[in-house]
UniProtKB/TrEMBL annotation:
<dbReference type="InterPro" id="IPR036047">
    <property type="entry name" value="F-box-like_dom_sf"/>
</dbReference>
<feature type="region of interest" description="Disordered">
    <location>
        <begin position="337"/>
        <end position="356"/>
    </location>
</feature>
<feature type="repeat" description="RCC1">
    <location>
        <begin position="81"/>
        <end position="142"/>
    </location>
</feature>
<feature type="repeat" description="RCC1">
    <location>
        <begin position="143"/>
        <end position="201"/>
    </location>
</feature>
<feature type="compositionally biased region" description="Low complexity">
    <location>
        <begin position="492"/>
        <end position="501"/>
    </location>
</feature>
<feature type="region of interest" description="Disordered">
    <location>
        <begin position="482"/>
        <end position="509"/>
    </location>
</feature>
<dbReference type="GO" id="GO:0005737">
    <property type="term" value="C:cytoplasm"/>
</dbReference>
<protein>
    <submittedName>
        <fullName>Regulator of chromosome condensation 1/beta-lactamase-inhibitor protein II</fullName>
    </submittedName>
</protein>
<dbReference type="GO" id="GO:0005085">
    <property type="term" value="F:guanyl-nucleotide exchange factor activity"/>
</dbReference>
<dbReference type="InterPro" id="IPR009091">
    <property type="entry name" value="RCC1/BLIP-II"/>
</dbReference>
<feature type="compositionally biased region" description="Low complexity">
    <location>
        <begin position="613"/>
        <end position="622"/>
    </location>
</feature>
<feature type="region of interest" description="Disordered">
    <location>
        <begin position="576"/>
        <end position="622"/>
    </location>
</feature>
<dbReference type="InterPro" id="IPR000408">
    <property type="entry name" value="Reg_chr_condens"/>
</dbReference>
<dbReference type="InterPro" id="IPR051553">
    <property type="entry name" value="Ran_GTPase-activating"/>
</dbReference>
<feature type="compositionally biased region" description="Basic and acidic residues">
    <location>
        <begin position="583"/>
        <end position="592"/>
    </location>
</feature>
Amino acid sequence: MADSTLLKLPLDLLTDNILPLLPPSALTRLGATNRDLHAFIEGAECEILWKRKAVDEFHFPANASGRRAGWKSLYQRLTRQSAFVWGENGNGRLGIAQGDNSLRSQLIQRGLTTPTLLELPSDAPPVSLSAGGWSFHALTTSGNLVSWGTLDGGTFVMGNAPLSDSGRTLFQPTLSPLNEQLGEIAQVEAGRKHVLLRNVLGEVWEMRSFGRAVRVEDEEGRWGVGAAKGREVVAVEAAWEHSAILTADGNAFIWWEPGPMALTTAAEAAGEANLSHPATQGVAFPFGIETVQLPAIPSPESNERITLIASGDTFIIALTSSSRLFFCDISPVPNPAQPFAPHGSEDAEDSPVRGRASRSRLEAAFLNGTRGWRLMSRFCDIEQIRSLDAFKDSPPPESTRITHVSAHYQSFSVYSVPASADPSASIVLMGKSDWSEESEPVVIPELQARARSHTPTGQLLAWGAYSSGALGLGHPQLLNTPLSAPWPPPAAARSPSSTALPPLPPQGDFRFPGFAPNREIARPSAPDKVESPMLVRFPGEGATILVGEGERKEGKFVFAITASGWHSGALAVEIAEDGEDGAATKEEEGPRIRLRQPEQASQGGEGGEVADDGGPTTGFAGMMRRGFRVGFAGRGLGRGMRGVGR
């Protein structure tokens, strides 16, 4: 009787005040006492409870997630998830330690072409993964930051340079030496050359090198800790060159890289010059920045506010509480003194470090109305969406509403995650930075009725430019990958040629495990582009078994994806429960990228011949580095379940 009485209480009281007090084991036992209670705890009414537990106990970035259901299953597996990376290996971005031949033998033209297991702290696994231009950054369940790669791959430095140098490379995943100063991190976002963090206190931190953490403070005190009620920061966004924050009351602010000399002066005042081990230590300090406030959205509703933002290179997309979408151009406003000069071509104020004059011109444009939010009706009005040719045979329901936005460099996507189990309400629309009111959404048929580029069954789709293996689809020279060449190849390909390799013993070449053994056949090359979305296969996955309505019995369930430059990453959990047949163990998943332990960072490598980051002391980290290459746009990989970002 007591159980029935419990369910008579208001839903909000149960999910907000009573059930959160119980540990998961107690909730399970409670559900076992009564059929109705079991259905309640396992059902849609309790999704918010398990979502909050994931956020509070594991720092899961729920504000960036498109997930509407399945929170209990994800919560139960968050201590056992795996991280994977693939793509271009330059600048240490894949975290492969120098001398790790087991992994380097897998590289094809400097790239890992299939997802490779990444070792991160076992006691605090990752809950989010963000890719920068030449780097990766992971947020762990303990609220710590783990980074690897290079923040500024266009800068040349010595292998053992101080961490304060933006060109310093971390060749292995490394716990940030500034985690204690940063506090418990709630959100991690990566731009091209910087990382933006928000901690549980609402503080905003920006890092443009691994050894400097700047606590960003608005010089006018309009947002952040200590600001007026409603101006607390609820989300941060690291774009190509700029940073952005969203406050609780729906106001957005942006800023660009501070002047390097000003940062150096502040870092020295914080004690950077007195560090005993600058190659492994850093400093954290507050820094006042002139931020630019974006204008209010034009709305007939007084209570309509911005709930999500996504930043590209020179634009920002906003989603409102009424499911409307707006576009704001933040590119440099032409200097009246140079009326014939293209944007930013001659005015030094319009450089990536936006000068005060450039910012003032943008603010003036906001005030006089020549710049501001423009309604993207073709992307959010359901009647206009239903009228698109791509949906003429199967239009989405009239109840469909856009729920998430994503942007990166010159591309953006908007999508809906339905609250119900009806997949027809899940749509994905894409566009470019040159959007105008006449622009029609790009619709890829294979992505509709799915929750973006990873499917409702947790499978990852990839397409677009090959980009050194960043699609994760393998290579024609590899066996058992989506891009594997047919084997044996047709007779026409068997004739010897100058591109053929010499014959090998029957067992193949031990240096290249997994490669096709018949080396008298000309080596097939990777395609320049994959036109249609294809499924990415993860290590340890056997043949996919489908049961019921697309439910998989085994393999990996991908819950977060990220991509930038020519490298990609994903977080996944095992679908099979512990002990079930088909559940792959880590030992079965092959080579893995190793975590660099803190003691390694302080002591360096063995024998004194290895620099602090694993690079050779006799060489240079980043020799022959290439400039940044845009490989993400159009590949179809979102940036890690992040509705506020990508």
